[in-house]
Amino acid sequence: MELEGGMWLYTDRTGLGKNGYPVHSSIYKNLITNLPTQAMEFPNFPFPSDLRGKFIPWQKVQDYLFAYADHFNLRKHVHLNTDVASVKRITTKPVSSGDAHQSPNRPQWLVRTTALQGGGSKEKVFDAVLVCSGHHSVPHYPDIPGQESFSGIQLHSHDYRHPEPYTDKRVLVIGAYASAFDIMKDVYSHASEVIITLTELDVLGLGEQYKKGLLPHNVRTTPFPQAINGSVVTFTDGDTLEPDVIIFCTGYEYSFPFLDASCDVTVSEGKRIQPLFKHMIHSRYHTLMFIDMVYTPIEFSIAYLQVPFAFKILDGSLALPSEEEMNQETEADYRDRMAS
Ligand SMILES: Cc1cc2nc3c(=O)[nH]c(=O)nc-3n(C[C@H](O)[C@H](O)[C@H](O)COP(=O)(O)OP(=O)(O)OC[C@H]3O[C@@H](n4cnc5c(N)ncnc54)[C@H](O)[C@@H]3O)c2cc1C
C-alpha cells in the first residue's frame, strides 16, 4: 500500500495490485458507509461536524483516516509498501526468577518484511506483535456443488467495483447480509433483474421486505442455491434460474499466511482464530495479539478499546489468568455463542 487507509483505499483494480500483491480493499466505487459517522469514529477524533450523523462516501472515510494520521503525527511510524512476509516465535532467554518479561509466555518474534518497491527482505526481532491485518479481504465461498461449472460471470463481492458491467444482466446475489443489500442497491438500476438468495437466518428481513413490496420493482428473493450446473442454478425449493452473473456476497475468512507454525495459531474453517482469549490475546504467548478481529460493525472503536488493553498486558500492569483458565473461559463463551 502506498498510503495509510487499509480497506478504505479504493482501487479500480481487482486480483493483483500494481505491486503484484493481492488487492486488499473490497470497497466499491459508489460505496456509502452503512453506519453514521458517530458509530464509526475513534472516540478521541470526531468526524468533521458537517458530517455528523451522516452515512458518507468512502472518500470521506479515507480523508478522515488521513486526517487522523496527520493529527497524531503517525506517518513517521508507518512503513508503507512493506509486506510482513513471516512472523516466527523465537525462544526466549532463560527465565530469571521474578522477571515477568522473560517468561515463556512472553516470547520474542522474528519478523521478515519485504519492500514492495525493491530493496529486498529484512529481518528484525520484536518483543511483541499486534496483528492488525484486517478480515475483509479473503473471500469466503459457500459449498455449492457445481459452482465451478457456471457458464456465466461469477465474482465475489471483494471484486465488485462498478454496476455498469451488469447493465441489462440478470444478477443472482448469493448471500443476504450487508454486502448483498449494498450491492443490490448499487446494481439494480442497471440490471434487468436482481435475485437475492435467502437462508433461514434472514438477518435483514429481506424476505419480509420483498413480500411487503419494499424492495425495488426488479428485485426479488429466492431460497438458497442447492446446485449449479452450467447455466442453471437450482434452489432448495426445486425452482431453477439462468442468471447471467452470480455475485457471491458470502463474507470473508480470517487468514494469516504470514504467521509461521511456531506461532501456534489455527483458523478453523476461516471463521475462528485459536487460541484467543477475549478474541485478541494468544492464551499461550501473550506477546502475540490480534486487534479488530471481531465481527462487529463498530470496528474503529473496537481497535481504540483493544490497544490500551494490549499495552497494559505488555507492560505487565495487567496480569492474565493461567493459559488453562483462559482457554476454559474462551470455550464456555464459544459454546454460549453457538447455542444462542
Ligand atoms: C464492503 C465493506 C464495507 C464496509 N463498510 C464499513 C462501514 O460502513 N463502516 C465501518 O466502520 N466499517 C466498514 N467496513 C469494515 C472495515 O473493514 C473497517 O472499517 C476497517 O477498515 C477495519 O480496519 P483494520 O485496520 O482493522 O483493517 P483494514 O482496513 O483491512 O486494514 C488492514 C491493513 O493491513 C494490511 N496488511 C494485511 N496483511 C499484511 C501483511 N502481510 N503485511 C503488511 N500489511 C498487511 C493491509 O494492506 C491493510 O492496509 C466495511 C468493510 C467492507 C469490506
TrEMBL record:
Keywords: FAD, Flavoprotein, Monooxygenase, NADP, Oxidoreductase. It holds the Pfam family FMO-like. It is an enzyme of class 1 (oxidoreductase). Its cofactor is FAD. InterPro entries: FAD/NAD-bd_sf, Flavin_mOase, Flavin_mOase-like, FMO-like. The keyword Flavoprotein applies. Its EC number is 1.-.-.-. PANTHER family: DIMETHYLANILINE MONOOXYGENASE. Belongs to the FMO family. This is Flavin-containing monooxygenase. It comes from Priapulus caudatus (Priapulid worm). The lineage of its organism: Eukaryota, Metazoa, Ecdysozoa, Scalidophora, Priapulida.
